[in-house]
Amino acid sequence: MNKYLHNIIRMTLLVLASLLMPILALGAQTVELRVEPASRSGLIEVGQKFYIKIIVSNIQEAPASPSSVPGAKIQYFGHQSSSSSFTSVNGKTSQSIVNIYALTLKADKKGKFSFGPVTVGGVKSNTVSYSIEEAGSTPQSSAVPQGGTSAQGGQAGAYDPNTQNQQGPTFIGKGNDQLFLRANVSKTTAYEQEAIVYTVKLYTTYSTIKFIGATDAPKFDGFVIEESPAVSNQLTYETYQGRTYATAVIARYIIFPQMPGQLKIIGNKYTVSTDAEEYYHDPFFSRLTVRKPIQLNVTPNDLTVNVKALPSPRPANFSGGVGKFTISSNLASTDAVANQAASVSYLVTGEGNVKYVHLPDLNALYPDEIEVFSPTTDVKTTVGSTNVSGSVNFDYSFMPMEAGTFELPPVQLVYFNPQTGNYETSTSRSYTLKVARGAESEKSQAAQVYNSRLVPVVLPASNPVRPYVRGFLYWLLWYIIPTLLLTGALIWRRRYADIHADMEGLRSRRAGKMARKRLRRAMDCIRSNNQDAFLDEMLKALWGYLADKLKLPTSALNRENVSQILVERGIPESSVKSLLALLDECEFAKYSPASARKEMQEVYDEGAEVIDNLETEFAKASKTKATTPKTEEDEII
Question: How far is CA 466 from CA 141, 455, 460, in A?
Fold first, then answer.
């Protein structure tokens, strides 16, 4: 009887407590700034990343993104984590809500700087001070700062929710038995430019996942990347190593290796918000479950891809395409008029690195009587779950110079098919072009009327008649001038053959001109406000300029080779650093959010300035080399 009475009294007290619970009150509103170095030494060096955390307590508003930070460049700003806690004192319950926003920065110059205060919801923060040291000043024996957590080392212990009273996410490295990420590629051995699928998959035993977000980007050194939208929108269940996990594909990229060798992919860090469950035994309610919100930082495993070079010898008219492609053509009309422009288009469709396919030089294929101008390209691609598919339309304008009937030969698209391991060819159709005389052509070819009437010439009787062939004018017009013209033509022909025999040298001399053409395409993207296409064109302009100027094949085009060759050519280190920094900035912006990107006009101006500076430095280096006296060793050689 006493046991039943005790249970009734206990239930009555619980009901009264739930009915009489006071309204929750929020704690004090505060805003705090905190500087966190990214390195293990605790120092901030020029060129390294560091973070400024904005910790907002009990304020609904979010801080605005700063426009600038002294001594550093802003790379990313966003919400990092949130947490809440409840406190009950003498029957009065209060709630505290903390949101953390991270400002990712790259140290730009040496010195001592300060940042702040910032105002959020009318509450002003503190001011933080930090020092930026020269690169390489970190002692080798430096330890992790006290109270910090190392982002290196991979494995961390299992997460214990009872120990958590943290302001930010807890780092668990490569994960634990409750939550981890697995990165994999569709192929661990592939050819250059072959499409590879890189996916990051979440495995967890938590019942719910509230938020998944990347705090930085994966590092694809030596790859061109295309982000795929084919990710999971909800959790599914999968058995892995004998245990059932809730899984989801949280990131997928289509990557194209740019050089042979062992290329490494370094996984990026993700923040995962979930609920940790604690179980209690109650004599009345039996088993109780309490959930606590937690945030975890976890990193997928790194991967290595073995990239094979394309088979040699490569066909002379290789288009650079790796995948499966077809080519078709369209001629608006087979009738044309001399000295009037016409157009023909070639459409390349398929799967693979379709953006980087190019066609042969049509001036070398078409008859000499037809002049072909540079094409206008229209690229349309779709990033799928396993490859990049789409089309590139090459629209050529041409002008027949003479009347007649001409054959426009078929254009061959030579590409490498990684599935068969062979070079394959797709061919467009040929056309018969009938060219009629135009207005200018008829005028220039009109028959001239010959006047056969002889005009009598009256010579003075005292002057003897001298034969015309004995005069200097006859020899000048018929022998001396033609001989000089023929000699000049032979010299010019020899010079022209020498120049065009060295195609790499010709490309090097025309590198600046070709780069400016590519920059004009980037300017068109600015006018149409197409940021993704703009970044592609800027990268094409910069890498294309370096390939032409330094006479490098695509397989040797990487940061280390370019930096070493530029220094050997006598290019100042400041110009090399500006070039590499701009390349990093463009590649980073491709997968960064739109809010964190620079203005397109600013990036365009930097690119034009970098190319102009390099052209000037190459000219100076060439002039210095020409004026340097030869040594005895050079003369002997």
Answer: 104, 19, 12
* Predicted TM-score of the model (pTM): 0.45
By three-state DSSP, how is residue 105 classified? strand
Residue with tokens 């001036």: 363
Closest CA to 605 of 532, 550, 549, 534: 534
Round to whole Å and give the CA distance between 110 and 71. 7
In 58-159, which ranges are E strands? 72-89, 92-107, 111-115, 119-120, 123-124, 128-133
Write out the two tokens for 618: 């190459």
Q: Give the number of other CB atoms < 10 A from CB of residue 180.
A: 21
CB atoms within 10 A of CB 328: 16
- String of DSSP letters for 212-268: EEESS--EETTEEEEE-----SS-EEEEETTEEEEEEEEEEEEEEE-SSEEEEEEPP
Give φ, ψ of 626 to 5 degrees: -70, -35
Cβ 557 vs Cβ 259: under 8 Å: yes
Instruction: Report the DSSP pairing between strands 318-331 and 412-417.
Output: parallel
Nearest to 169 by CA among 251, 102, 217, 95: 102
pLDDT number for residue 306: 95
Q: If pLDDT is split at 50, 70 and 90, which confidence band does 450 have?
A: very low
Measured CA distances, 620 to 12, 43, 545, 613, 623 (Å) = 92, 39, 18, 11, 5
Q: How far is the C-alpha of 231 from the C-alpha of 253, rounded, in Å?
A: 10
Q: Work out the mean pLDDT of the chain and round it to a whole number.
A: 79
Question: What confidence tier does 463 reach under pLDDT thresholds 50, 70, 90?
Answer: low
Cis peptide before 117 (omega within 30 of 0): yes
Compute the half-sphere exposure of residue 609: CA atoms within 13 Å on the CB side of its CA. 11
Distance CA 244, CA 238 (A): 6
| Beta-bridge mates of residue 243 | 240
The amino acid present at 33, given as its one-letter code, is L
Closest residue by Cα to residue 49 from 265, 251, 269: 269
Summarize the confidence of residues 318-327 as an average pLDDT: 93
Give residue 477's identity as a one-letter amino acid code. L
Torsion angles phi and psi, residue 546, rounded to 5: -65, -40
- Supply the DSSP symbol for 576: H
Which residues touch 276 (CB under 8 Å, ≥6 apart)? Answer: 159, 161, 206, 291, 292, 294
Structure token digits, residue 344: 């023909």
Distance, in Å, from the CA atom of 258 to the CA atom of 307, rounded to the nearest integer, reads 9
